[in-house]
Amino acid sequence: MTDGPSNMLHIDTDVRSDGVVVAVAGEIDLATADDMVSQVAGHLAGSPATLTIDFAGVRFCDSAGINALVRLRGLCVEAGWQFRLVNPQGQVRRVLVDLTGLGELLNIQDGTS
Amino acid sequence: MIDGAPAASDERLRRIEAVTDATLSHLDPDELLSELLDRVRDLMEVDTAAILLLDAHARQLVATAARGIEEEVRQGFRLSVGRGFAGRVARDRVPVVIDDVDRSDVVNPLLRKKRIRSLLGVPMLAGGDVIGVIHVGTLAPRHFTADDIRLLQLVADRATSATQTRLGRIDRDAALALQRSLLPARLAPLAGIDVAARYVPGHHTGVGGDWYDVFALPSNWLGVVIGDVSGHGLGAAVVMGRLRSALRAYALECDDPADALSRLDHKVRHFETGNLATVLYAMITPDREHMRISLAGHPPPMIARPGKSARIVELPVDLPLGTGELPPRRSTTVDLPEDGVFVCYTDGLVERRDEHIDDGLERLRETIKPGPAEDVCTTIMLSVGVERPTDDVALLVVRRLTENA
Question: Has residue B303 got a pLDDT over 90?
């Protein structure tokens, strides 16, 4: 279990046999977005698998956060990994899917554990 | 008068107060430097006083203010760090005392010409870095004391903060000039429409990555753009300038907004790294009756016609620019009602941390009533209440004029 350095963002990482699941909670903005990328990017090693970002606990994500997610997805593509973002909630889901049109790019899925 | 400790420390206090008093703060930084040097010359009973500031790129000290040797400044005297007296002060970052100039390596021909005999110089330090040197000199031989050194260091501190303010202002003025050239407050009039805009930066530099643009095309179509480059401050503003300019170039060549945004995306993928941008590009027909709109990850525009409440325009949303993918992009045709208003904006206008985005969209929708574009802008900005946003806010309102207007 890893805690994010900022107390506005918490990151729990679970390394499984089929990939890595990163549960993010709190707010992703200019202050916390880079932390998220650097903490997660380190896991993209070894043979290609799936990186799952679980957004169930994220209550706010602005353009800095969106930038970070797209960057993470890009790092996955380079490393040959699959990227998916699961369980975005409420207004975060609205912004990511409906307003910014990232549903397909970020492989956004609902109701996944 | 009795000699003794109390009188001496009163004198010390008087000297210190003379260089730190609050009235100095009311002066312009350039005046402040000159005023400080005047006071130093009186207080320390020296004949010359000068401030040289470091030109970091050239590694040279440049004479910036002087009393008693004004020619230094007039002639733009420069001295390499490490050379001569002031250069040594800057290089070694410690006070330097020269009791007898004739027996030293003082390089400055102006000091020699003036027949300075003794010199004291101290570095000006900001955050651990040398930003300049302040020195004083006498025509008669003088032995500068530890008290003199301490006093000049105090003066150096004062001069340092004045200089930082001056530099900060120059940077800020340059950034604002860039921004004003890209986001004019008054938009040039265009046939058949009345247009107005607002920009509120979310960054202390006064600049950011949001932009708006309106232009006529040779075909008599009009282009209307609103965009948001991720990031803040000058870095985002510089990228924004490039996108704004490139989109204008593609607009000249493309009949369709989706096509222009695709080309812009291609350019961003090739030339710009690390910045996502959301953009709305609308093209208005020559008769002003319709618009073709393409959205790249950008919030939906709103339209209000006279007598009816505003509606959010339902449009398909394509990816923001700069994701690295080049998806197919879509344009949609929308009516522009006579006397109606078309409102586009960046997410800073509707997004609040403690509120659902739909509440912000609804609040904006309720505020829009058809009218002169300037009035619509004013009403929106007042009701949305952007006083201290953390995100940039840009707003553009286009009103279609009736045929008789």
Answer: yes
